[in-house]
Description:
The complex is a heterodimer.
Chain A: H1 38-47, H2 51-87, H3 92-140, H4 143-148, H5 151-193, H6 195-203, H7 205-242, H8 244-249, H9 253-305, H10 311-325, H11 328-352, E1 379-387, E2 393-402, E3 407-412, H12 418-425, E4 433-438, E5 441-442, H13 448-454, E6 455-458, H14 469-474, H15 482-491, H16 495-500, H17 518-532, E7 536-540, H18 548-559, E8 566-570, E9 582-587, E10 590-595, H19 597-602, H20 606-618
Parallel strand pairs in A: 3-8, 3-9, 6-7, 7-8
Antiparallel strand pairs in A: 1-2, 1-4, 4-5, 9-10
Helix pairs in contact in A: 1-11, 2-3, 2-5, 2-10, 3-5, 5-6, 5-7, 5-10, 5-11, 7-9, 7-11, 9-10, 9-11, 15-17
Chain B: H1 23-28, H2 31-34, H3 38-72, H4 75-124, H5 127-132, H6 135-154, H7 156-177, H8 179-186, H9 189-226, H10 228-233, H11 237-290, H12 295-307, H13 309-336, H14 351-358, E1 374-381, E2 394-401, E3 406-411, H15 417-423, E4 432-437, E5 440-441, H16 447-453, E6 454-457, E7 466-467, H17 468-473, H18 482-491, E8 507-508, H19 517-529, E9 535-539, H20 547-561, E10 565-569, H21 573-576, E11 581-586, E12 589-594, H22 596-602, H23 604-611, H24 628-632
Parallel strand pairs in B: 3-10, 3-11, 6-9, 9-10
Antiparallel strand pairs in B: 1-2, 1-4, 4-5, 7-8, 11-12
Helix pairs in contact in B: 3-4, 3-7, 3-12, 4-6, 6-9, 6-13, 7-8, 7-12, 7-13, 8-11, 9-11, 9-13, 11-12, 11-13, 18-19, 22-23
Protein name (chain B): ABC transporter
Keywords (chain B): ATP-binding, Cell membrane, Membrane, Nucleotide-binding, Transmembrane, Transmembrane helix, Transport
GO molecular function (chain B): ABC-type oligopeptide transporter activity; ATP binding; ATP hydrolysis activity
Amino acid sequence: MTAPTTSVPATGDEEDRPRPASAGDPFDRDVLPTPPGATSALLRSLLAPMRARVAGTTLLLLLQQAAVQAGPLLVAYAIDTAVPAFRAHDHGPLIAVAVAYVLSALASGGLQWAFVVASARVNQDVLLDLRGRIFRHAQALSVDFHERYTSGRLISRSTTDVESLRELLSEGLQELITVILSFVYISAMLLWLDPGLGAVAVASFGPLYLLVRAYRRRAGRVFQERSTAIAAVIVKFVETMNGIRPVRAFRREAANDAGFRVLNRRHERTNGDALLEMARYVIGSRLVANTAVALIVLWGAYRVADGSLELGVLAAAVLYLRRLYDPIDRLGMFLNSYQSAAASLEKIAGLLAQTPSVPEPAAPRRLPPLASEHPGREVVFDGVRFGYRTGGEVLPRFDLTIPAGQTVAVVGSTGAGKSTLAKLLARFYDPSGGRVLLDGVDLRELAVPELRRGVVMVTQEAFLFSGTVADNIAIGRPEATREEIERAAKAIGAHDFISALPDGYDTDVRKRGGRISAGQRQLVAFARALLADPAVLILDEATSSLDIPGERAVQRAMATVLRGRTAVVIAHRLSTVEIADRVLVMEHGRVVEDGRPAELTAGTGRFATLHRAWRDSLV
Amino acid sequence: MMPTTPDTPEDPSVRTRPAGRSAVRTLLRLWPYVRPVRARLFTAAFVAVVASCTGLVIPLVLKWMVDGPVAGRDPAGVWLGALYLLLLGVAEALLFGLRRWLVARPLSHVEAEMRAGLYRHLQRLPVAFHDRWASGQLLSRGTTDLMLLRQFLAFPLTFLLVNGVTILVGVGVMLLQDWTLGLVILGPAVPVVVMCALFEKRYASVARLAQDQVGDLTTVVEESVLGIRIIKGFGRHRSQARAFHGLSRTLRGTELRKARLLATIWAVIMTLPEMAIGAALVVGAVQVADGSLSAGTLVAFLSTALALRWPVESIGFLLAMSQEAATATERYFEVMDEEPERPGPAVAAVSAASAAGGRPGAGGGDGGGAAGGLRFESVRFRYPDAPPDSPPVLDRIDLHIRPGESLALVGATGSGKTTLTALVPRLHEVTSGRITLDGADITALSREELRAMVAVAFEEPTLFSASVGDNVLMGAGDGAGPAELERALSVAQAGFAHSLPQGTATQVGEQGLSLSGGQRQRLALARAVVGQPRFLVLDDPLSALDVHTEAAVEAALRQVLARTTALIVAHRPSTVLLADRVALLSGGRITAVGTHHELLRESAEYAHLMTGAPAPQEPAREAPAREAPTREAPPREEEEEDDDR
């Protein structure tokens, strides 16, 4: 079929045993537990490398505001000084006003240009940094985390949540700086023009501050809810689009519409709430501001009337006053984007605070050089114990040695611990006790590139990334040449179908004609593994969608191209066992039978029974 | 390197706006969504205009105070003036608040409606559409683009109007106060308008580019999350991060280009009017000195001019936001303009068929004989987006599954088996030929009816975020209850559901407990059989099961199959044996039909597929997906009554 729509994480059959109820599991909520102060620490760490540039940008804005705010001062000067001088035929002051005005206009425009460009650069760099951090961190977190934190939520962290920070940075911060600067500037101007009028203006900041504080508190809650609501919408959206076939076949459209409507409504409601909070704030702040203007004008007019204030000073003061309160709407807008960004940042911080449960080593060791001409390596499970975070122990103390170059088939019923064994060997998980050794080196001490040259796992889900077929195979070894890619595809029997695609190896798996069936995807996954050329190959149910010739091709490849590698093969079907040097039968996390296939088949144990059942199924 | 090639022009998601389609025309397409809230929106705009004009009256009151009571030393007049100021101020505050209050709920509603509309539409677009579009691109349309649109309706739309009116009224007021000064102020209008028009055009294309790049980035994020096991398994998270970094750097570049454009227009809009104000100040000062203008008038005039500064300056970013809204609209309608699956015909036309399909499992007696069962007649299929001269995926498929019979479909990897099964519930439409269910052409049935008659289990068993019980019961009609659930679970050997933490009420899927592949497959199978469908399509239903479970499922499934007409895609002899007969699909044709043992004897290709015996023409190694040789061979019609019509 098509499209990489592997839906739900497959955790392997260990999940067959019920996990205890997930009551109180923090992963059920949208916000992961965040250490106190992590949000502001995150913001600080994002801005820290830009400190100098932030300062420079602020300076630009400072100068720009100085240029802008020169206007009313020039008006006062013109009325109080230049006009009388002009009457006295002294044109100098008026010419000075004209020149100064032109200069301030040019400066405010030019500085605005410089500021917008400089701040955009800072913003974009912060976003680049944050996007990268989220992405890298999500990639570094263990498979265990990804199984519990749904993909939709992770996507919404790196899309809508980053988007709300973008809004804060691109509009909000500029607003904030402008607002603070004009408050400071204009207050200073007013105080300088007339200390009395200035004092009244400054006094009006008190009630404004209270308003802002109340708004922050109330809006914070609303934004938190809104961000959770949109994440729920995204999860539903992604799930539906990725499962569009069953949605259609089971006529879920109407039911989905209804379910989506509920989530969408919740978002609509919180969205409306947020806008209403803003309306409240605007009314309150405008009322305070306009009342203050009326008071100041009243007092100023009185004083002009009794001669203790110049008319020009009152005119300038009134012009400044109008401007003083102009930015309070913009302050509201800033608070808006700040609250929204804070809610998002908290979630991002919560995600970034997750420590990878499978950390990379601080001081990695190297694998010893290969002992023989065989490319395989020895694998040892040394007293390994493992239990899932939420469940009981899946592997109670487990010891196993696989000599280099041996092919081991692991069989057993669902829940016996086969997949856990594979995941421990691939280091998707770390054991809770004991060690897994590769040629005597603990897997935990290997750097990732070294580890992946050592161990590669092919699973049942064969996800294709967007890009060409060749790109998808090259994931196994990015530096591989086209020839090597084709050789790997040929070895696994995938060359024919790939050549038959419209553009052969260059066919985009997402675009026209790029429809690839489940079996073909598994072949591509194998070609990937072949190209990676690991010392140890793990196949976890990797042939489930292949037909028998496909499976044979895989077996042939293992006997030829992969000859001498250590291999661990987990399969429900026993056809794979035929090529194994050794068979392990697992039950309840223990190896209950261990021997050569022929020995076990001839015996009377569990494997013999299984094998007979399988023989019968072949007819 | 991870394959994260940015979109090429042929990509459906990167279409440029048809030439001549202006931003305004694009934005007008939003009207149907805005219509229901138009009363509120217009009232709000009107209120905003009034509020802004109230703001413009304030300088006039100041002028009156300066020239009248202040100059005349009239304390009562000063009090009156202050009172007017206060009243105007209160009115302005309430009006601005009222504007926001009026639109808060309606605009959230518009956004939500558009999102619901998109979701509804996407669910009904052909599956082929979803094959083409990365879901990240769809998601970014459903989230960021719609938020942009809501913001546009809330802010730029209103304020372009409000500021336009404010500027006009303000200019009017100034001209009335002193027409020479007014003309001086108007000087830069023409160059500013020209610059804005130029800016708009260039900004549009950059904005569109940025939005598409966000979509690409979303796609990479999504894939890297969904493919995490592969990335980890091959230790590729660094190269994946590099690819992501590359894309986000490109996005950064585009955003910076946007910022530079915005900075330029902003600088122009700031500098030119400010110069005009400076000129007016000098001219006004000269007039005051001459005594031809009162000081109060000059103060009021400049006060008005300065009050207009914000409306004028804001036009730059209002235009930018409108432009982004226009591209967001475009992106939204790119998806909305896609044709959904055509609805089925009127019910009357197929009343006979629907009566037959109405009660599933009621024994296929009425549909028996030659017309009954599931029948493919000269079916040919080519993907709708494939070039018309390419060979069809399926060609001249003639197949008849008799009522109550089950037929296994066997073929090499990639031979089109899954595609064939997708034709039955009309996930894809046949290119030519027809498929009938108990004699009724499936295109004559509504999709609703058709899909109620045919149940499918896909090779990828997708569960939804719902309880186990709901996931299974979604395969049945409304009447199904615990009894049906129980029966279906036991057929699929999915008894494990009862030992889950909350039994069958346990949440699974994206937001619930993750189950193993085998468990999901069994639940998907239970979902397919729970409604006791008349027709059953199973795509490799047992691939992830171990031998014991498989045997138990087979035993239970046999009883179900005895009562239904079934098409089963099979890779293994054990699955094939569930069916009464087998059809071999090869090179897009059905090349053989018979029982398993007959075909083992008679068809080398079949024997190859089932036992791994050497392939017919080739050494075994090259075996899968041979297409050319078999296409030459005439279709061997083993099927009795199904010759050409």
